[in-house]
UniProtKB/TrEMBL annotation, chain A:
Gene3D superfamilies: MetI-like. Its main location: membrane. Residues 67-257 form the ABC transmembrane type-1 domain. It comes from Methylobrevis albus. GO terms for biological process: transmembrane transport. CDD domains: TM_PBP2. This is Carbohydrate ABC transporter permease.
From TrEMBL, chain B:
Its main location: membrane. PROSITE patterns: ABC_TRANSPORTER_1, ABC_TRANSPORTER_2. Keywords: ATP-binding, Cell inner membrane, Cell membrane, Membrane, Nucleotide-binding, Transport. It comes from Methylobrevis albus. Belongs to the ABC transporter superfamily. Residues 4-234 form the ABC transporter domain. GO terms for molecular function: ABC-type maltose transporter activity; ATP binding; ATP hydrolysis activity. One of its GO terms (cellular component) is ATP-binding cassette (ABC) transporter complex, substrate-binding subunit-containing. It is found in: Cell inner membrane. InterPro entries: AAA+_ATPase, ABC_transporter-like_ATP-bd, ABC_transporter-like_CS, ABC_transpr_MalK-like, ABC_transpr_MalK/UgpC-like, Mo/tungstate-bd_C_term_dom, NA-bd_OB-fold, OB_MalK-like. This is Sn-glycerol-3-phosphate ABC transporter ATP-binding protein UgpC. Pfam families: ABC_tran (PF00005), OB_MalK (PF17912).
Automatic annotation (TrEMBL), chain C:
Coiled coil: none annotated. The chain crosses the membrane at residues 25-47, 84-106, 118-135, 165-190, 211-240, 274-293. This is Sugar ABC transporter permease. Residues 81-292 form the ABC transmembrane type-1 domain. Belongs to the binding-protein-dependent transport system permease family. It comes from the Bacteria. Keywords: Cell membrane, Membrane, Transmembrane, Transmembrane helix, Transport. GO terms for biological process: transmembrane transport. It comes from Methylobrevis albus. It is a multi-pass membrane protein. It is found in: Cell membrane.
Length: 271, 361, 302
């Protein structure tokens, strides 16, 4: 056999072993989700698969209440954040002023503030304004938490559009609004789409504020799943089924956006 | 009618001047080329005419009307960008028709205009393609087509050929010349390539450091450069310059010394110089001929046989001159060479770098 | 800071002589972030100098440095700081080392590379509470967990991870979550490596190890620095994983700074004390943030 192929086969075995080990916990969760509760506590691969757990989770109305909370909060905060971020990023990318760079870095710095440092006042503000345990409250917090990343991502996508294209648009008679709708948005749609996906992922998986500022009413799935941690909630198979349903959509979103994710999470410092 | 006039036009960025009071008149249907080294301000000047850069001083008149504060699309101009700046998400037809669409031209009329432009540019078969699916030369033509459909008073070109390979550049150059005749429009063209300037222009503006060095017809600039900068910038190989001093100056001409002890008499007006003044002798390569009695004596240092001609770099007592010799010349490196200057082939520049007028001029 | 952005009056921005005002575009974002940053921050600072306990409404007034004094005299703070540093440090070391190796490995050409890459980065998208429950129940459970099963099958003693070595268990779990992040970013960085440079090094006779040592690693230094800084900011505030698995215990064995403040604020209702802890956390994060922002700012000018 030729040595190149041997090398490639060896690499394949090695890389897939690594991939298998990394993915094992997720895979194990998937497998457990199809076991009966009895099988679930014996770590064996021999079992007869069942959809029973999904049916049970499905029948528990509260699962869908929490799932709905997750959806509303993730989409609500993403739309709100985009509505705030796109105009700001547009202005900063195409009409940069003396302070543009400072504003960008300052926005970034708000992201560095540890959440726990302002937990107490946020809790008190939310309690006193009636936002505690409401979807609106979590939408606001998730918007604010994600806004800097979203501004940065939109900014970097706008920045990638060659200035000459907009100048050509100006020569062709496009006013700023027309430039935005005919040129910028069509050209950056993939970028803005992946920005939105990233914002949804971040909001969906956000745990700190969701756990501390919500309870029975507005709790998203992160908080709901956490409630299984108490020993009396030990129904592993159902827990796995619920977890699978909570994780699956986001896993798919994440896979779709991995490249843009790097850009967003490193603020463009790694492309 | 489409004329463009610049009156003491200036450009400053945060107090730093990059264009210093340019006065220029571009005539109707003229092909005007702005040429100069990079950073000379030629592109800035074009962008100021286009309306993409603000004019910080002086006036811009298009067809006699002051246009300083008119927005770019209302100046009646169209521009072809160096990077083509095609809209990547639109088809060729949509790219060309975008301006008309914004101007709310009815669709039928729009399509007719796009089709007409596509015909001129031989783009009919590509109208439904996206720019990504086109070659460099085709993209270039789409960019030109986008300008044509608007039927502008003036076409602006910002180094339009610099992203093409050498063969395509020659081809597009010829097409541009044809287009100018066909469209019968005023064109302003920026390039750093002096061959493009020489071949395309009705008149050339040579710019340097934000100032106009000289304006004139290509051959006028080539044969009678006003100063050392213009003389050195136009022409390939570059004009030979020999630093020397005046030995005598009278009504029959100016005699200057040469490296190696010879001297030569140049038919230039003696008015501005006297014996002992530093001057520069400029001679183009094609004005040097091999002549045993020649005044420039030295050895061939480098020889380039190009087939049709031979470029011989000759070391004459420390300064290097290049001579363009006939292709059949079998000169080799190390050969002793004596060169003479053809009549009228030399220009003298005074200490300030200004060309001295020839006798009888 | 002012949000007014005077523009270089480009003619493009001009519609009949008036410049486009960017203020209305930028102001909303700036305003909400400004409020978001300043109000809670000021309140935290204020509370940290107050006597304020939600369980005891009669305990009020200026406390001076009392909250800080109490905080610093509390051994729980020091163990929380130690736990925080151990957690951050070990996770950083393991994610950077593994991330670098994985990145190089997954940059190679092998069968099914695209799918394998997706498998490797998957843990990053699993929500923290779910991954905590997977590790706690399905994997590390001393009786029914997969690890216990493997140990028993091999005749080895079973480890009760979250009881006997709780901090290690959390480190392993958090590292599993963050290795994909390091891998993803370093893989992207490797892919941006100049292939010509690699070819040139090969022509110069560089073997794989030398290539890794002299070309790849130096190229990765900056991305690694960024990975370290971003991970540090997130790892300093690890919370859900601890809440779900150990609730900070046994005792305070897995209580980090974030969890300590959470306990003080929402379980003990000591607003003053929790705020003092918050201020400490902010200072800690700012030290890291300073370097991170400087690195990114340099990138912005480039």
């Amino acid at each position: 056999m030729n040595p190149k192929l041997v090398r490639k086969l060896a690499l394949t075995v090695l890389a897939w072993s690594v991939a298998g080990i990394m993915f094992f916990p997720v895979a194990w969760m998937l497998v457990t989700a199809f076991k009966t509760e009895i099988d679930a506590v014996t770590p064996s691969l021999v079992f007869s698969p069942t959809f029973e757990n999904f049916v049970v989770v499905d029948q528990r109305a509260d699962y869908f209440k929490f799932a709905m909370n997750s959806v509303v909060i993730a989409f609500g905060s993403t739309i709100l954040a985009l509505a705030l971020a796109v105009p700001a990023a547009y202005a900063m990318a195409f009409y940069p002023g003396r302070f543009t760079k400072d504003i960008l870095l300052w926005m970034l710095s708000t992201k560095m503030l540890p959440a726990v440092g302002v937990l107490v006042p946020m809790y008190l503000i939310f309690r006193n304004t009636g936002l505690l345990d409401t979807r609106t409250g979590l939408i606001i917090v998730h918007t604010l938490v994600n806004l800097p990343i979203i501004v940065w991502m939109c900014y970097s996508f706008f920045k990638d559009i060659p200035n000459e294209i907009l100048e050509a648009g100006r020569m062709d008679g496009a006013r700023p609004r027309e430039q935005l709708f005919y040129l910028l948005l069509p050209l950056t749609l993939p970028g803005i789409g992946s920005t939105a996906l990233l914002a949804i992922i971040l909001s969906w998986n956000e745990a700190f504020w969701s756990l501390n500022l919500s309870a029975a009413n507005a709790a998203p799935l992160t908080a709901f799943i956490a409630s299984f941690s108490s020993p009396e909630g030990l129904f592993w198979a159902k827990l796995s089924a619920a977890s699978t349903m909570a994780v699956a959509p986001i896993l798919i979103f994440g896979w779709l956006t991995q490249r843009q994710l790097v850009r967003g999470l490193t603020f463009g410092a790694v492309k | 009618m489409a004329t463009v006039q610049l009156k003491s036009v200036e450009k400053a960025y945060a107090g730093h001047k990059v264009i210093h009071g340019v006065d220029l008149e571009i005539r109707d249907r003229e092909f005007m080329v702005f040429v100069g080294p990079s950073g000379c301000g030629k592109s800035t000047l074009l962008r100021m005419i286009a309306g993409l850069e603000e004019i910080t001083g002086g006036d811009l008149l298009i067809d006699g009307t002051r246009a300083n504060d008119v927005s770019p699309d209302r100046r009646g101009l169209a521009m072809v960008f160096q990077s083509y700046a095609l809209y990547p998400h639109m088809t060729v037809a949509d790219n060309m028709g975008f301006a008309l669409k914004l101007a709310k031209v009815p669709e039928a009329e729009r399509n007719a205009k796009v089709a007409a432009a596509a015909k001129i540019l031989k783009l009919e078969d590509y109208l439904d393609r996206k720019p990504k699916a086109l070659s460099g030369g085709q993209r270039q033509r789409v960019a030109i087509g986008r300008a044509i459909v608007r039927a502008p008073k003036v076409f602006l070109f910002d180094e339009p050929l610099s992203n093409l390979d050498a063969a395509l550049r020659v081809q597009m150059r010829i097409e541009l010349a044809r287009l100018h005749k066909e469209l019968d429009a005023t064109m302003i063209y920026v390039t750093h390539d002096q061959v493009e300037a020489m071949t395309l222009a009705d008149r050339i503006v040579v710019l340097n450091a934000g100032k106009i060095e000289q304006v004139g017809r290509p051959l006028e600039l080539y044969e009678r450069p006003r100063n050392l900068f213009v003389a050195g910038f136009l022409g390939s190989p570059k004009m030979n310059f020999v630093e020397t001093a005046v030995q005598s100056a009278d009504a029959t001409g100016v005699t200057v010394g040469l490296p190696g002890g010879h001297s030569i008499k140049i038919a230039a007006k003696p008015a501005r110089v006297a014996k002992g003044d530093r001057v520069t002798l400029g001679v183009r390569a094609e004005h040097l001929v091999v002549d045993p009695a020649g005044a420039l004596v030295g050895r061939a240092d480098v020889v380039e046989h190009l087939g049709g001609e031979v470029l011989a770099y000759v070391d004459i007592g420390g300064s290097m001159v290049v001579a363009k010799l006939p292709g059949h010349d079998r000169i080799v490196v190390g050969d002793p060479v004596s060169l003479a200057i053809r009549d009228g082939g030399a220009i003298l520049f005074d200490a300030k770098g200004e060309a001295m007028p020839a006798l009888g001029a | 800071m002012t949000a007014t952005v005077p523009l270089p009056a480009t003619p493009a921005a001009k519609g009949g002589g008036r410049a486009v005002r960017t203020l209305p575009f930028i102001a909303p974002s700036v305003a909400v972030l400004l409020v978001w940053m300043i109000v809670p921050l000021a309140m935290t600072l204020w509370f940290s100098f107050q006597r304020y306990n939600l369980l005891n409404p009669f305990l009020t007034g200026f406390a001076g440095v009392e909250n800080y004094q109490y905080l610093f005299e509390d051994p729980a703070l020091w163990s929380a700081l130690a736990n925080t540093l151990l957690l951050v440090g070990w996770v950083l070391v393991s994610t950077v080392v593994l991330g670098t190796l994985f990145a190089v490995l997954f940059d190679q050409d092998f069968f099914g590379r695209g799918v394998a890459r997706l498998f490797v980065i998957a843990p990053f998208f699993v929500m923290p509470t779910v991954s905590a429950l997977i590790w706690k129940n399905l994997l590390m459970h001393p009786v029914n967990g997969f690890f216990a099963y493997v140990s028993r099958s091999l005749g080895l003693p079973v480890i009760d991870w979250f009881t006997n070595i709780p901090l290690t268990a959390i480190i392993v779990m958090v590292a599993w979550q963050w290795v994909p992040f390091a891998t993803l970013i370093l893989l992207t960085a490797i892919q941006s490596l100049d292939r010509d440079q690699m070819e040139a090094a090969r022509m110069d006779g560089a073997k794989s190890i030398a290539l890794f040592r002299y070309i790849i690693v130096p190229h990765l230094m900056r991305p690694i620095a960024i990975v370290v800084m971003i991970e540090t900011l997130f790892l300093l505030s690890i919370f859900a994983e601890i809440l779900v698995t150990t609730s900070g215990g046994p005792g305070v064995a897995t209580t980090n700074l974030t969890y300590l403040i959470y306990v003080r604020a929402l379980l003990e209702f000591d607003v003053g004390g929790a705020s003092a802890g918050g201020v400490v956390a902010i200072i800690l994060a700012n030290i890291i943030a300073f370097f991170l922002i400087r690195t990114i700012a340099r990138n912005l000018t480039a």
